[in-house]
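#struct-pred

JT: dropping the chains for the assembly here, can someone run the whole complex?
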Amino acid sequence: MDYLDLNQGALAPVTDECICNNLSVEGEIPRDLNGMLVRNGPNPFSGKFSGQGVLSWWPEAAMLHAIKFADGNVLEYRNKWVRTRKWADFFDARQTPLLLDTNPNVNVISQGNTLLALAEGGPPVVVDAALETSGQWTAQTEFTRGMTAHPKIDPVTKELITFHAHWSEPFLRYGVIDAKGVEIVNMEIDIPAPAMMHDMAVTETYSILLDLGVGYDFSLLKKGYRIPVCWQDSRVSRLGIVPRHGGEVSWLEIKPCFIQHVVNAYDAEAEVIVLDAVRYPWYFKIDPQTREFTPDPLGELWRYTINLQQRTVHEEQLIESNIELPRINELHTGRYNRYSYAVEQPTAAEMRGIIRYDALTTTIQRHSVDAGDNNSEPIFVPDRNGTAEDDGWLLLSVYRQATDSNEIRILDARNISGKALATISLGRRIPAGFHGAWIAMGEETGRGR
Ligand SMILES: [Fe+2]
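RK: done, full complex below.
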């Protein structure tokens, strides 16, 4: 687990907040790219990570980064820490913190004109288009106490479909919040033991919860391990299929695995669901001889075809490449998607290169990134003038080792192997964090609710 050098290269934190204008651009920014790319990730207030390895990385303070585009121009880059209680303690104890003790450093989403920063350990936090912290999410929902960093938003109904997996009872809660922020489904789901669940999938009619091979074991902390989760051979890996608006959960067993991120799911035909996901044969496994965590395997793209009537799941690996951080055109969330995009992992220490997988032709296109460099997940921005699923752009944040700074690449999503349409040099780093989102112009009012 501990191969990461946190204070050098792509992961290295920045020491300040800034607003940068006059960014240099090579190529031509599409005129219809109107909005902002927001990224989230850990960045210590001190500007330096205090340890090494992922466990010194994951918990650090949430910093947001935004790059704004309008009418063929890049307007600015800015970054800000989320104003948590710990932020106030570090920078200005006189300020009344806007937030409880939470650190939403994993993801950002926009729903119903509200931009949310998320991490599964705490409540969602509302931020505005200037990345100022507005406060805690005040939607009328049980999930204000904590929820996954990967809820799904139905592109048509704008419902937010979510869950909260916890180590104490109830171990699993599932819910749906409508476009106005009102909770319309909130149900506890009984599972035999607490499970580490990071992501979920939805179709137009069902939601899919992932009760897999990684579970909680607090005796690990007493034995000196830094986390209370590990792979457990005794666990049964299961997909929980629940009707979107509540009802009986169908649990279907699959081969032992762990899924960090799903690509998408959809209703292929009546009572048949297709789920594509990044699968690991195991994760967080402790070697019984050395009693140390073994290096995690690399993720693979797998397809699960779920037949609810027959109660069967067909499992197949789709491509040989090692990938992570998959994205799609989110107008297809819960609907058929032909194209998937993801980061390639040539080795465990690298996030380098992008693939575009065409499920119809089963072919792959690649966008390569130089050795020594590192890139974020590819965020798909639909072209509002387009009609095809792949009419749009992919936005990547790429760390360039040669300049110790990041650039934003804008790729034609139809042809990612070609040269970037435009490259914006930021002149400073966006530390490789976790996830990001495209916020189209007008979507982000930052109004809390
Ligand atoms: Fe994630």
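JT: nice. The CA atoms of residues 353 and 369 lie 5 Å apart. The chain has one domain: 9-440.
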